[in-house]
Amino acid sequence: MKSAEILCIGGANGSGKSTLAQICAGLLTPSSGSVYYLDKKVESRNNLLELRKKVGLLFQSPEDQLFADTVEKDISFGPRNRGLRGAELDARVRTAASLFDLSLEELGGRSPFTLSVGEKRRVALAGVLALEPEVLVLDEPFIGMDFDARQHMQSLLGRLRDDRGTSIVIITHELSSSWLLADRYALLAGGGVERLQSRSELVEKERDLIALGLRLPQWGVLANSLKEMGIFVEDPADPLALARAICSIREGSDGR
Amino acid sequence: MAGKDITIGQYLARETALHRLDPRLKVLAVIAGTVVIFLYDSGWGLLVFAGMLLLVLVLARMPLWPLLKSIRTVWVIILITALLQFFLTPGKIVFSWGFLTVTDTGLYNGLILSSRVVILVLLLATLVMTTPPLALADAFSSLLSPLRRLKVPVGHVTTVMSITLMFIPNILEVGRKVMRAQMARGADFESWNVFRRVRDIVPVLVPLFVKVFNNAEELALAMDARAYPESGVRTRLHPMRIGVLETVLTFAFIGLAVGLIFVF
Amino acid sequence: MRNDRVEQILVEGLSFSYPGAVREALSGINLLFEQGEFCAILGRNGSGKSTIARCLNALIAPSAGSVIACGLDTRNRGDSLEIKKKIAMVFQDPDTQIVGTTVEEEVAFGPENLGLSAGVIRERVDRSLRLTGISNFAGRQPMRLSEGQKQLVAIAGALAMEPAFLVSDESTSMLDTEARQRILELFLSLKEQGVGIIHVTHFLEEATIADRVVVLDDGRVREEGVPADVLYDPEKVSDMGLDPLPVTVVAREMSSMGHPPAGPVLTVEELLSCILA
Fold this sequence. Notes:
The complex is a heterotrimer. By secondary structure, chain A is α/β, with parallel strands linked by helices. Chain A folds into two domains: 6-199, Rossmann fold (3-Layer(aba) Sandwich), CATH 3.40.50.300; 217-256, no CATH class. In chain A, 46% of the residues lie in helices and 14% in strands. In chain A, strand 2 and strand 3 (40-41) form a beta hairpin. In chain A, helix 3 packs across helix 4 (86-99). Chain A is globular and about 70 Å long. By secondary structure, chain B is mainly alpha-helical. Chain B has a two-stranded antiparallel sheet with strand order 1-2. Chain B starts with 16 loop residues before the first helix and ends with a helix. Chain C has one domain (8-244): 3-Layer(aba) Sandwich (Rossmann fold), CATH 3.40.50.300. Chain C has helices at residues 49-56, 80-86, 103-113, 118-131, 147-159, 177-192, 204-207, 227-231, 234-239, 246-256, 268-276; strands at residues 8-16, 26-34, 38-43, 64-69, 72-73, 87-90, 165-169, 196-200, 212-217, 220-225. In chain C, the strands form two sheets. In chain C, strands 6-7-8-3-9-10 form a six-stranded mixed β-sheet, sandwiched between helices. In chain C, strands 2-1-4-5 form a four-stranded antiparallel β-sheet, with helices on one face. In chain C, strand 4 (64-69) and strand 5 form a beta hairpin. Chain C is globular, with a radius of gyration of 20 Å.
């Protein structure tokens, strides 16, 4: 993983997604092999605790973890556990809330249970961001969200990467929801990870994806079909490029 | 969830004689056993009863390890019960330690009481492990049916009971997930500090309750959608059919257990 | 399940508010569902799509208006048993629907509640397992199956009621793509056998294979029609809070470049066929 990038790891249910997520966050230790953070191997228990501080982890349906009387108290749970108090704590909570477009004036004093699913999910995320992790690992962050909520979340994650330099790992079986967001891809299958670089590489793997129980988003399927017809599109996420490619065939066949 | 050993209401899918036994007989035997162990005057009665129970379990080829595990989950209660008796019962002092004194009657009472609890847990665990929740509900519904004439809401009782049983593994699973999520936020469940551990239970209990209630509501809705009757009266694909031999054996067991009251 | 008379669910002026809620969850809905038709109901979160599913089989009674399901009024408590026989439902979470310790016990749950004889229950269980293609699961423990398999069991359980309609309340949202595919294929085959499928979902690709699409927004019917007519315009689709299909976005770009496709396109094949034409 590099800093300030969004990596999307595609994995079907049962491929070991949540295990991988927990290893990355230092909550589980691998039976063999090792985790390296900033070129340093994670070996001792101290290393492990350090790793936990640097990596924030959110499981599927994070809104299920909300418990406090108010949104503000819930977000402050994490930093409070790390020993923060007073003005520093308030500042952390405020920053985390604003990162996820949560207005503390409006929502801070409300019970988290009165919020919508999208808002709850953002509160849970803010709660983890309040720990100021350098890396964020998200297990199926978009599941159950409708289009508006998903778009909002995507822009917030993008902002996190661009403004704070946070590295974000999204582990999901729904490649379409991070299609436009991710910088790089990887595939998790049979306990192994295959590293890919770009969307174009992912698009080439259409058949492998199906074997893994994953599906290429319609963008990729279209790009592949065009490739079979001899047209190469560099960015299989750009509707303009795809449209231009198709129009060029049309113009060609019209003899213009 | 695939591949994990998840059982419904701690029901263990096996083929033992106890599994095949009519659920109504099992319920009657357990109720009788529960009452009887509190009526024995001396420890000998408990010992003989425990022996009888063990004999039945072994003859039926019941896997004993899961039963022992169920005792493990309540060992704290058993320990507290015993300790309270040790320290708080008046009698001849056996030994003392600072301001804490242990009496001989205290020791005796403590052992008796904790044995009763252990046997009780074993009885209930055997019942739940050998009877699917729906069969248990049907058994209760059938046994309590005379009460319907007295307008007692038998159906509601059995429905609530079966949903509760079916939810035990769900509660454990949700609890595990919530603990995991809070751990990722720095909650410490392995701290030596007792106050810390108690305080950190709240972030687990609240979401646990909320989630479990929501799940229970969904389950009730799903049961309603398939016309689960309020009265609890329903037919069965494999109807409950009481055999003569099993009835005789069960009542023999109950009779022996009751008889022991007068002996010990 | 083939009937000479085609059963219907008639929704007229349906409104519903949850107790204590400020706004209505459903407002003046008029819809007609027919046996043998696959109808997809789409809508953003909060549009009322889950609420309407529960109104169809008398789980929820309307605050105003009516739902006449197969000739029975859902407001009549006395008819609720008959209604549940005709309109079966599967829910979103595979885990909170299962009550049996074996698949067989699970599927038998419905018929048992109806007080049918053991012989009839046996027939229904076998038939439902066959229809869903899971006859070999009969003795297995539902809790040990995958999420997708659990949903197949849930559908079998619903089919054991021998309903005229099957209402799916987002039954595919918690599944991975392969499991979703299998369920949709099952829905299509059930439709061929005369069961009316009403599938509530927020995945647009699932709606493309439906005979009819209904889009709810803010408790009202916003759009209704064949998938091509309702879903071809990406701007309208995202305005309704739904995820536009990528081909529709590409098709729109093509139009603005002066090469509009011949008709509404929803799939890659349709889009490419207008090049090859």
